[in-house]
Design brief:
The complex is a heterodimer. Chain A starts with a strand and ends with a helix. Chain A contains 7 helices and 15 strands. In chain A, a hairpin with a 4-residue loop joins β14 and β15. Chain A folds into 2 domains: 117 residues, Rossmann fold (3-Layer(aba) Sandwich), CATH 3.40.50.2300; 103 residues, OB fold (Dihydrolipoamide Acetyltransferase, E2P) (Beta Barrel), CATH 2.40.50.1020. By secondary structure, chain A is an alpha/beta fold. About 6% of the residues of chain A have low confidence. Chain A has a 5-stranded parallel sheet with strand order 2-1-3-4-5, sandwiched between helices. In chain A, strands 10-9-8-12-11 form a 5-stranded antiparallel sheet. A 3-stranded antiparallel sheet of chain A has the order 13-14-15. In chain B, strands 2-4-5-7-6 form a 5-stranded mixed sheet, covered by helices on one side. In chain B, strands 1-3 form a two-stranded antiparallel sheet. Chain B is an alpha+beta fold. In chain B, α3 runs antiparallel to α8, α4 packs antiparallel against α5 and α7 packs antiparallel against α8. About 2% of the residues of chain B have low confidence. The longest helix of chain B has 51 residues. Helix content of chain B is 61%, strand content 17%. Classes of the chains: A alpha/beta, B alpha+beta. Chains A and B meet through α1 of A and α4, α6 and α7 of B.
């Protein structure tokens, strides 16, 4: 028996999937969710083997939701948006169903799911998630709550083993992600990798001081001092147009 | 006043033409007069010595005539060119207006079709009525009359079609209110297909920025000779996307207003508490 979860903010869209699933006696729909928040809870509760996931949803989108899920299930995306398809396959999604889709197309997606299951390779998929297009916020888990942090509120990001620590004016949040990922995605948002362990929001920089030999320190508007490496200093100067 | 100035080549051309024509004229006249006054020695002598003078007069006359006609022709050409330019500009403006009006979000269409696909199974009657509404809506958006102006009533009816479709999709969360201050406002004229993109924008941000039920309201009122239409949706100022207010819907409406009224201040946005309001001011 395979456990299936459907996450979509439109009840009718969920009905289509349920209807198409009816002939499959070995697939059981364990739940339906209206949004990503419910989705995260339901995934934890039911540990589904397969989820059907819409991308455009209230508050947090499908990609952002997946980021926050620890044991990531197999995913079939269902959306009217063509432009996310490449992103979705980057995430090793099993399939990407463009709404509206017919029964034949749906059956193929299920067929694919079974093939991946039988090949029995418990893939390490969905490890690094690339958000579509421009990143303008970061979604984190804060205890049981989910917080959406706009980039403008982030002062700097610090490396912490397998995690990164994201610092705002008065709080910090842990997120399982690599520095390289944020460096790549936040570049056009004025974030500079000033040090192996630090990524700084250049909008919050007030001063750059020399420090020891070759090194520098940046002072942020919240009073925090961040070390800057030699190559980091070059990047920072470039970004600030100095 | 600007005067037409021919280029140097044209002057040379005029001089050559005038010289040639003057010479031909002089020879013809000389031959003719010679034939007529064959016996009058004195006249023939006068004819001979006055040749340079007569040539000069002919040259001046022909030259000035040529100049005048050249100026006239080029003036005509210039005005034709200007007309053509104006025509092209007008066509460009109309084409731009048309594309701005027709920018229907394809996702809306695909999602609506997906809903129909669901309804076909469970509620075929509703599926049919949704197809009907979708067709009416599409027909409205593809209308070709370029008069641009419709009554507020027609526009609200059109908007209603759109809202009915959205409610099939989001009926469990979406509530809409349309308040027109005074019945007489319904007959006022407004540019067509202006309200729908604004409403679409409000619905999108209202629905995707909150988890709860969402109420979107449209209010129409008259202030002096300005028809004010405001559309309000709830949103979360903390996490709202930075693109808010520059969303595609708003920018295309702003462009259309600028093309129609030549003003850039007719669409404004306001934020108060948890509400985002788009205000449209249409001079009557």
């Amino acid at each position: 028996m395979m456990k299936v979860l459907i996450i979509d903010d439109e009840p009718l869209a969920r009905n289509v999937i349920k209807e198409y699933l009816k002939p499959y006696k070995d697939l059981e729909v364990v739940g339906e969710c209206n949004d990503g928040f419910e989705g995260i809870k339901a995934i934890q509760e039911f540990q589904p083997d397969l989820i059907f996931l819409d991308i455009q949803m209230p508050r947090i989108n499908g990609f952002e939701m997946l980021e926050l899920v620890e044991n990531k299930p197999r995913v079939i995306f269902t959306t009217a948006y063509e432009e996310y398809a490449i992103k979705a396959f980057d995430l090793h999604a099993i399939d990407y169903l463009l709404k509206p889709f017919d029964k034949n197309r749906f059956d193929k997606a299920i067929e694919k799911t079974r093939q991946q299951q039988s090949s029995a390779e418990k893939e390490t998929f969905l490890q690094s998630i690339h958000l579509p297009a421009q990143m303008h916020r970061i979604v984190v888990k804060d205890g049981n709550k989910i917080r959406i942090i706009p980039l403008s509120q982030i002062f700097y990001i610090e490396a912490a083993d397998d995690y990164v620590k994201i610092f705002t004016q008065s709080e910090s949040f842990l997120k399982k992600q690599t520095m390289a990922y944020f460096e790549e995605n936040l570049q056009q948002n004025q974030f500079a990798r000033v040090h192996r362990s630090y990524l700084v929001n250049t909008q919050t920089v007030t001063r750059i001081d020399p420090y020891e030999k070759d090194g520098h320190l940046v002072l942020l508007t919240n009073g925090k001092k961040i070390p800057v490496s030699k190559s980091g200093y070059k990047k920072l100067k470039e970004m600030l147009g100095l | 006043m600007r005067y037409y100035l021919p280029s140097r080549e044209k002057y040379i051309y005029i001089i050559i033409i005038s010289t040639a024509l003057s010479a031909v004229w002089l020879l013809c006249m000389r031959f003719l007069l010679w034939q007529i006054f064959k016996s009058d020695e004195g006249y023939l002598h006068m004819l001979k010595i006055s040749s340079p003078l007569r040539f000069s007069i002919a040259f001046l006359l022909i030259g000035s005539m040529a100049m005048m006609s050249m100026a006239w022709y080029s003036e005509k050409e210039k005005s034709q060119l200007e007309n053509r330019k104006k025509e092209a500009e007008k066509m460009f403006r109309e084409a731009e207006l048309r594309t701005l009006r027709n920018q229907l979000q394809p996702h809306f269409l695909f999602n609506a079709l997906n809903s129909i696909s669901a309804l076909i199974i469970s509620e075929p009657e509703n599926a049919r009525s949704m197809i009907q509404q979708l067709s009416d809506f599409l027909r409205g958006s593809m209308r070709k009359d370029d008069t641009q102006l419709n009554t507020l009533k027609e526009e609200i009816d059109y908007l209603q079609l759109y809202l009915n479709i959205e409610k099939v999709r989001f009926g469990h969360r979406l509530e809409t209110k349309i308040i027109v201050e005074d019945e007489t406002l319904l007959s006022l004229k407004i540019p067509n297909l202006l309200l729908q993109p604004l409403m679409e924008n409000a619905i999108k941000f209202g629905l995707y920025d909150t988890l709860d039920k969402v109420c979107i309201s449209l209010q129409a009122a008259i202030k002096g000779n300005i028809l004010e239409i405001s559309i309000t949706n709830p949103f979360d100022p903390e996490t709202a996307l930075p693109l808010k207010g520059t969303g595609f819907g708003l920018s295309s409406v702003r462009k259309r207003l600028a093309l129609i009224y030549g003003r850039h201040d007719l669409l404004t946005t306001h934020i108060s508490d948890q509400n985002f309001t788009t205000l449209l001011s249409l001079p009557q």
